[in-house]
Amino acid sequence: MSNIYLTQDEVNNTIEEIRATMKGLGTDEKKLLRILGTKTPKQMSQIMSRYLNNYGHTLYQHISSEVHGSFGNICRGVSLPIIEFDCDLLREACKKTFTANYTYITEVLVGRTNHDIKAIKSFYEDKYNEKVEDIINRKCYGDMKKLYLTCLEANREETKEYTEEDIIEDVNTLYQATEARWNASEKVVIDILCRRQFQHLRNVFYAYQNKYKKPFTSVVEKKFIGPIEKNFLILIKSAMNRYQYIAEQFNIAINTTSVQHTKLIRYTIRYRTPAILELIKDSYNNNYTRTFGEELNNAIFIDDRTKEMILLLLNEKKIKINKKEEDNGKEKSRGIPNEDSDSNDEDIIDDRIENIKENNDNETIKIVQDEDIYPKIQQTKEE
């Protein structure tokens, strides 16, 4: 998919096409998926903002009232800014009567950059008038509460320059906190894994294996159990190669025995930004026999519409545009990939705040971007 924005006319035409798919009895799901499945998060941010401005309610609300099931889940997901999707997932995770859904919370918080975490905390508090730390304190317990609260500090030393002595010190500290004692110290491991720079952690893990002749992952598997073990392994894998870890999770999600594919839907929504998706695919294709696209096409889904939508969003299916449609501009989408494009994807990583001013009116769409996960999709109220 392309990263360039839609023109104002393209935004307006797309909105009218979306509304047309949901007029009358039933929804034309095939047309709807062709529209939503070929738009990048940047383009969806334009569509969402204009939709709310034109009709007084959100695209998410309209789709929620018309489309249901697994296909409805993914359509609703792409109709939200990715950061809002993650914040809603956190909210959903903490609605359980007793212990929260650690799977959801881990997906959103663990292994993220300081910028990711700060963006999540800010958006969550703005939307729900409550701090993320407060719900974690209420709904999580023990070591998992400590882990999540440490992640939420957003205190990873991302710019510090580490020395060889720092590496040796952390190797020794990890050993003393784990293998050197009968009862391993979760707190020490949490502090190091959640606060050290990723490159430094990679060096620490290499040094640990070189000194003790075993990977630190095997130590974690031996000394810890349950959710805290799982999350330590996620942090280690994220530090070693974040995109390889995500590719591994995609593989698990694709090959699940559940035809509902709820995890695959979540990962598709979160990681569909073109520049990020390309890195995940490269890692996937380097580590598995079948390519990312082949694996997706072989998966068994609860319905064909959901599968087709996922293939489009993950850029593993091209849609054909006939001459008449192209002339009318109805299916002309900048979300369709152009292999010859020389557009620069780096702005996905580098831009933080960008104002897009539309020529024909005074509307301004404000968009905030996270440097690693969130594309330019955080939508604020128009002034």
From TrEMBL:
<dbReference type="InterPro" id="IPR018502">
    <property type="entry name" value="Annexin_repeat"/>
</dbReference>
<dbReference type="InterPro" id="IPR037104">
    <property type="entry name" value="Annexin_sf"/>
</dbReference>
<protein>
    <submittedName>
        <fullName>Annexin</fullName>
    </submittedName>
</protein>
<keyword id="KW-0677">Repeat</keyword>
<dbReference type="GO" id="GO:0005509">
    <property type="term" value="F:calcium ion binding"/>
</dbReference>
<dbReference type="GO" id="GO:0001786">
    <property type="term" value="F:phosphatidylserine binding"/>
</dbReference>
<feature type="compositionally biased region" description="Basic and acidic residues">
    <location>
        <begin position="325"/>
        <end position="334"/>
    </location>
</feature>
<dbReference type="GO" id="GO:0005737">
    <property type="term" value="C:cytoplasm"/>
</dbReference>
<feature type="compositionally biased region" description="Acidic residues">
    <location>
        <begin position="339"/>
        <end position="349"/>
    </location>
</feature>
<dbReference type="GO" id="GO:0005886">
    <property type="term" value="C:plasma membrane"/>
</dbReference>
<dbReference type="Pfam" id="PF00191">
    <property type="entry name" value="Annexin"/>
</dbReference>
<keyword id="KW-0041">Annexin</keyword>
<dbReference type="GO" id="GO:0005544">
    <property type="term" value="F:calcium-dependent phospholipid binding"/>
</dbReference>
<feature type="region of interest" description="Disordered">
    <location>
        <begin position="325"/>
        <end position="350"/>
    </location>
</feature>
<dbReference type="InterPro" id="IPR001464">
    <property type="entry name" value="Annexin"/>
</dbReference>
<comment type="similarity">
    <text>Belongs to the annexin family.</text>
</comment>
